[in-house]
Amino acid sequence: MAIVLILAAAAAFAFGHLGQQRSLGGPLFTDGKPAGAPGVKPTARSVPVALIIPAIGLIAPVSELGLNPDHTVRVPTTFQEPGWYKFGPSPGQLGSSVILGHVDSYEGPAVFFKLRTLRPGDDVDVRLADGLVTHFVVREVAMYPKARFPTFQVYGPHGYSALQLVTCGGVFDTQSRSYLSNVVVYTSLVSTT
């Protein structure tokens, strides 16, 4: 049976409480300011078509995700293809762009299986439909219980161009056939080519 990525968050529709995080990496902010290259100009809106993360050997096409009837974010229908939350900014625009992917399935590892192994300083690139490539750097990797998912921290605007990558993690509950936590990789835009 497939393991689905569950987000109880209503994304841009209803920002929740900041959850208790268990940090797996370095700081998201440096000296009280958002980490990232100063003066990096945000890009125009363009659909992401590919996600590249060299540190974990990931090169994958990106699909688009909307909302379920209950206003939770849909999950990708393919285990080897992450999905971009299309009602938020595109990668490189001002604000928080979010890409979600599965960690595994009954068949084995899925596209974001190695996501939690990323470390601050790792590169994350997104190829856009307009031909630009947006280059992000990992600032923090954190894990949150799903019941305390920090919706605003993941989906909300923070004054710079961010990209958050989200998957399942932590303990697997055999009764619900689901992971009890989410892993979130926080990145910020450093350049475009």
Tell me the layout of helices and strands.
Elements lengths: L21 E2 L5 E2 L2 E2 L13 E6 L4 E4 L1 E3 L17 E3 L9 E6 L3 E2 L2 E2 L13 E6 L4 E13 L5 H5 L5 E13 L4 E15 L1
Parallel strand pairs: 6-7, 8-13
Antiparallel strand pairs: 1-12, 2-3, 4-5, 4-11, 7-8, 9-10, 11-12, 12-14, 13-14
The backbone outline, from C-alpha atoms, is globular
Assign the structural class, choosing from mainly alpha, mainly beta, alpha/beta, alpha+beta, or little secondary structure: mainly beta
Number of strands: 14
Query: Distance between the terminal alpha carbons, to the nearest Å?
Result: 41 Å
Q: In sequence order, what are the helices and strands, one letter per element?
A: EEEEEEEEEEEEHEE
- Which strand-content bin applies to the residues? 35-45%
Mean pLDDT across all amino acids: 84
Low-confidence stretches: 1-34
User: Roughly how many Å is the radius of gyration?
Assistant: 15 Å
Counted up, domains total: 1
Kindly identify the CATH topology.
Answer: Sortase, Chain: A
State the CATH architecture.
Beta Barrel
CATH class: Mainly Beta
Helices, by number, come to 1
Q: Would you identify the CATH H-level superfamily?
A: Sortase
Helix content: under 10%
Largest sheet: 10 strands, mixed
